[in-house]
Amino acid sequence: MDSEIEELNRKASKYSEQLNNIKNEVKKTIVGQDEVIERLLIALSAGGHVLLEGVPGIAKTLTIKTLSECIDTDFSRIQFTPDLLPSDIVGTRIYNHQNGEFSTVKGPIFANFILADEINRAPPKVQSALLEAMQEYQVTIQGSTFPLTNPFFVLATENPIESEGTYPLPEAQVDRFMLKVMMTYPELEDEVTVLDRFTGGYTVRPEKVISADKIIEIRRFVKEIYAESEIKKYCASLVDATRNPGKYGIDAANYISCGASPRASIYLVLGAKAHALLMGRGYVTPQDVKFIAPDVLRHRILLTYEAEAEGVTSDDLIEKILQSVTVP
Q: What is the pLDDT of residue 127?
C-alpha cells in the first residue's frame, strides 16, 4: 500500500503543479478571491458544476471567463433573461426549402465551458433545459439526442439580493451543482489593487496553460486518489446528519425541512479527492472533507420557516454538523 500511495503522491504532485499554473494565471486578472478560484478548480478537476452566488460587481462573470481563457477549450456565455426559450440554449431543427429536409442547428450549450449568467432570471422551462445536459452530458433536440463536448463544465451565477423578476431554481436543478460557492466583497487592500489594475491601463490577457485532454486526464486521476473506508463513512455520516441531526446530538430538527441527497455523499468524496490533488497529495484526509463540505452541503439543506424566521442559515447548521460528527 505504501508504494501505491507513493506513486499516487508522485502523480498528484505533477497534476497539482498544472492546476496551480491555472490558478496563478487567473490571479493575474482576479484579485483577492483565492478561495473561490480554488473551489472552481476543485469542481473542474472532479467533473462537477458550480453555482456561484454573490452581489453584483464583484467579478463573478469575469472570474469564470478568465478561468475559461486559461484552458484550451470552447467557451459559451448564455445570458439568462425572462424571454429566453429552451431552443435558445440547446438548439433547434430548421426546415430547408431548397432540399426539403430538416437540419439541426446546435445551441450554445455545445461548448466545453458554459457560463450561465444570472441563471435565476430565466423561467423554469428554460432552467430545466440544463438538467439533462448537466446530468447526462447530452441534450435532446426534437426527439434526437446529441452528446456534449468533453470536458463539459457549467458555471452558473446568481444574484442573492434582487428577487424581483427572478425564478427560484428548482431543487432538482440545484442538486445537479456539485458546489454552491459564495463570493464576497474583496478586502480593502485587494480593492485598491483592483483599482490599480482596472483604472490604470493594466492589460494582461490570461494565457492558455492547459489543454482539454489534460483536464480529462486529471478527472480520471481524481477518482484514483485513495480514500480509506473511514473517510467515506465520515462523508456519509455528515450527509446523514443533515437528515437525522438528533442522531448526532444536534438540536436542529426544527430547522431542517429536508436533508441532503446521496449525491451529496458522492460529491463530498470527489471534492475531498480533488482538494487533496490540489494540495499535491494522492490520499484524502478529514481536513479535505471539512474544507469542501460547506460548498457541497449548503444548497442541499432545505430550511424550515422557523429557521428563516430565526435567521438560522444552512451554513450555521453545517458548522454544527462538522463540530458534532466524529472525525476519523
A: 79
What the chain holds in terms of domains, given with CATH numbers, is 29-196 (3.40.50.300), 225-324 (1.10.8.80)
Q: Is the peptide bond before 262 cis (omega within 30 degrees of 0)?
A: no
pLDDT tops 70 at residue 206:
yes
DSSP reduced 3-state for 298: coil
Give the three cell numbers for residue 282: 494522492
Q: One-letter amino acid identity for 2? A: D
Q: Is residue 29 exposed (0-12), middle (13-18) or buried (19+ Cβ within 10 Å)? A: buried
Q: Rounded to whole angstroms, what are the CA distances from 113 to 57, 58, 79, 109, 299?
A: 22, 20, 14, 9, 22
DSSP string, 10-57: HHHHHHHHHHHHHHHHHTTT--S-HHHHHHHHHHHHHT--EEEE--TT
Residue keyed to cell 460557492: 181
CA nearest 61: which of 116, 127, 21?
116
Return phi, psi of residue 51, to 5°: -105, 115
Three cell numbers at 64? 469564470
From CA 193, how far away is CA 265, in angstroms rounded? 39
b/e per residue 249-259 (b: at least 16 CB within 10 A):
ebebeebbeeb
Q: What is the pLDDT of residues 55-67, one digit of tens each?
A: 888 888 888 888 9
Distance CA 230, CA 141 (A): 44
Given a cut of 90, whether residue 190 has pLDDT beyond it is no
The predicted model scores a pTM of 0.91
